[in-house]
Amino acid sequence: MSVVITGATGHLGSLVVDRLIEIGQPAGRIVATGRDTSRLAALAQRTGVQTRRADFADPASLADAFAGVEQLLLVSTTDVGQRFDQHRQAIDAALAAGATLIVYTSILNADTSRLLLADEHRRTEEYLQASGAPHVILRNGWYLENYTDRLPVIRQHGVLPGSAGDGRVSVASRQDYADAAAAVLTSGGAVSDGSVHTIHELGGEAFTLTELAATFSEVLGTPIAYQDLPVDDYAALLTGAGLPAEVATVLADADAGLSRGELYTTSDDLAKLIGRPPTTRDQAVRDAVARPTG
Ligand SMILES: NC(=O)c1ccc[n+]([C@@H]2O[C@H](COP(=O)([O-])OP(=O)(O)OC[C@H]3O[C@@H](n4cnc5c(N)ncnc54)[C@H](OP(=O)(O)O)[C@@H]3O)[C@@H](O)[C@H]2O)c1
């Protein structure tokens, strides 16, 4: 029986595989899956885990991919608009293969959030709950990397643009969320105080984008201002920067949700699950600045 990780060609899934190995899970029990197994070769070489092809849009691939699964980490996919059907097919296949635990990466406040991004997460959660399968839902907050990956452009223009107003966003690094997922997969969802939750609201430090701009200013040693834009203007700016229109719309809408507090939590589930404070914005920005480019 095995632990199957989906989305292991992606950032979060591969970090979870590395973390499982780091905390002593036998490589022979771990199956890393992705749509293109050639993109899992480096991970397999580094960790010794098995790799298999799993494409949620191709249910026939999932019976082989999930054969022998005990615990499944279902990493939410990227095709907004098609994700619910993809997730549903993955849940059905995992249950048919005999999974005894399905861990799903959702979004913060999925049950109440009005973000465009939240709708398919909420439907997936409801499907998982109705399936009767033992499950844990990890409602991941925003990634610090959503901001630190934009560092070169922010530095170039001296501006952090957004539509978040004075809203606070609860943020942590992908590594923090990956460590949480690995902890759940190895503990069945128990947190450090011994209690078990089916739903974890995961977020670290909370801040406004004005506060984040101040951190950028301090670490970069040059003034960075937060520029608050109407949602349509921010979407247009993102489109102008080269993002596809539908991605720009979803990201600008997420900032509007941020302004309403929908990506904010007071929960300390993340710190409890990982047994340490989540990464701060100060640390993340310093790490991003120190990282070699190219
Ligand atoms: N909390 C946040 O701030 C935030 C930000 C961005 C995304 N997310 C969500 O969190 C997820 C994980 O984040 P990430 O940074 O690891 O994203 P990522 O690097 O883009 O990885 C996404 C993974 O999903 C896989 N995938 C896409 N469509 C699939 C399908 N039809 N069947 C099977 N796998 C499929 C991708 O496979 P391929 O390599 O084949 O494309 C990839 O491995 C994302 O997919 C998204 O749902 C959250």
List SSEs in N-to-C order: EHEHEHEHEHEEHHEEHEEHEHHHH
Q: Can you tell me the residue ranges where pLDDT is under 50 for at least 5 consecutive residues?
A: none
- Can you tell me the overall shape? globular
Find the CATH topology of the domain at 2-140 and 174-202 and 266-275: Rossmann fold
Structure class: alpha/beta
* CATH homologous group name of the domain at 2-140 and 174-202 and 266-275: NAD(P)-binding Rossmann-like Domain
Bound molecules: NADP nicotinamide-adenine-dinucleotide phosphate
CATH class of the domain at 2-140 and 174-202 and 266-275: Alpha Beta
Give the N-terminus to C-terminus distance in angstroms.
41 Å
Largest sheet: 7 strands, parallel
Mean pLDDT: 95
Count of DSSP H/I helices: 13
| CATH-derived architecture of the domain at 2-140 and 174-202 and 266-275 | 3-Layer(aba) Sandwich
Number of strands: 12
What is the CA-atom radius of gyration, in angstroms? 19 Å
- Largest beta sheet: strand ordering: 3-2-1-4-5-6-10
Protein name: NAD(P)-dependent oxidoreductase
Domain NmrA-like: 3-252
InterPro entries: NAD(P)-bd_dom_sf (IPR036291), NmrA-like (IPR008030), NmrA-type_oxidoreductase (IPR052718)
Organism: Parafrankia colletiae
Task: Provide a concise account of the structure shown.
This is NAD(P)-dependent oxidoreductase. This protein is an alpha/beta fold and 294 residues long.
Give a quick set of tags describing it.
alpha/beta, three-stranded mixed β-sheet, globular, NAD(P)-bd_dom_sf, seven-stranded parallel β-sheet, binds NADP nicotinamide-adenine-dinucleotide phosphate, Rossmann fold, 294 residues, 13 helices, single chain, NAD(P)-dependent oxidoreductase
